[in-house]
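Summary of Year 1 activities. Much of the first year was spent building the evaluation harness for sequence design. The harness presents a backbone, in tokenized form, and records the residue chosen at every position. We chose the following record to illustrate the format because it has been used consistently in internal testing since the harness was completed.
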């Protein structure tokens, strides 16, 4: 079993399942020593968490896993993405650094200060980002050894209305956005997702968000690691921003479970 840091919950799946549901942005928890560096008061922080958190996506993934005959693995971030965002590049490759939202955010969703502009991210990268990345890479390697392949389904949500931080928010905002990568998302995987999510009032590929998460150990080099991002517009399953989940969550979980069933 891979070594998992305290910041991550690994929910084991079936020994013969290649599927890993990756849930990086569902949590709101922020350790006190990380909170102390933030320039928001408690009310402002709570509002920011409402906007930036992919609320209920961990519950959605767990519901889908429970519906699956061959249970997928789940890799769930226990901490808010305001601690570190594990899906960003940790260096100059990350385009979101332009709006202060690289691996360690210095700006909020509304482009107001979150941390000082000259904040040194080294401690957070060493303490959280790199251990998370190592653990995810180990889980992928474990699935490769066990099944000969790994299929990462990256589960996210996004707001109905564009937020100021979005660099590419001018396009359509469909009920479901599927993020695909030229190397890691084979046409058959994308076609299956388009079919399984086709009843939700509009599905688009790479709009308004593009690409999907693959650990850097395998990115662009290991074709046995395939991946797809599923971005769900929040009005499909919850009250925005940051409100409770509704009946749409169960319907979406069933669609995700149907996709998982085709990937065994």
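For this record, the design step produced the sequence shown next.
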């Amino acid at each position: 079993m891979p070594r998992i840091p305290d910041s991550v919950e690994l929910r084991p799946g079936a020994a013969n399942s290649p599927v890993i549901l990756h849930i990086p942005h569902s949590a709101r928890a922020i350790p006190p020593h990380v909170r102390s560096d933030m320039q928001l008061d408690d009310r402002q922080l709570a509002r920011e968490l409402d906007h930036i958190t992919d609320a209920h996506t961990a519950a959605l993934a767990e519901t889908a896993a429970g519906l699956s005959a061959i249970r997928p693995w789940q890799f769930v971030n226990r901490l808010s993405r305001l601690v570190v965002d594990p899906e960003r590049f940790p260096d100059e490759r990350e385009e979101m650094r332009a709006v202060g939202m690289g691996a360690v955010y210095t700006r909020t969703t509304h482009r107001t200060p979150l941390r000082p502009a000259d904040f040194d991210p080294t401690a957070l990268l060493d303490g959280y980002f790199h251990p998370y990345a190592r653990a995810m890479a180990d889980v992928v390697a474990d699935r490769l050894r066990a099944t000969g392949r790994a299929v990462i389904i990256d589960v996210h949500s996004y707001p109905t209305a564009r937020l100021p931080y979005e660099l590419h928010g001018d396009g359509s905002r469909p009920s479901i956005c599927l993020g695909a990568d030229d190397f890691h998302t084979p046409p058959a995987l994308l076609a299956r997702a388009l079919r399984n999510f086709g009843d939700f009032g509009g599905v688009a590929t790479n709009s308004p968000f593009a690409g999907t998460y693959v650990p850097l150990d395998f990115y662009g080099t290991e074709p046995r690691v395939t991946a797809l991002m599923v971005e769900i517009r929040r009005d499909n399953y919850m009250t925005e921003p940051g409100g409770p989940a509704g009946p749409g969550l169960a319907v979406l979980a069933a669609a995700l479970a149907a996709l998982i069933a085709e990937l065994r």
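The radius of gyration is 17 Å. Quantitative recovery figures across the full test set are reported in Table 2.
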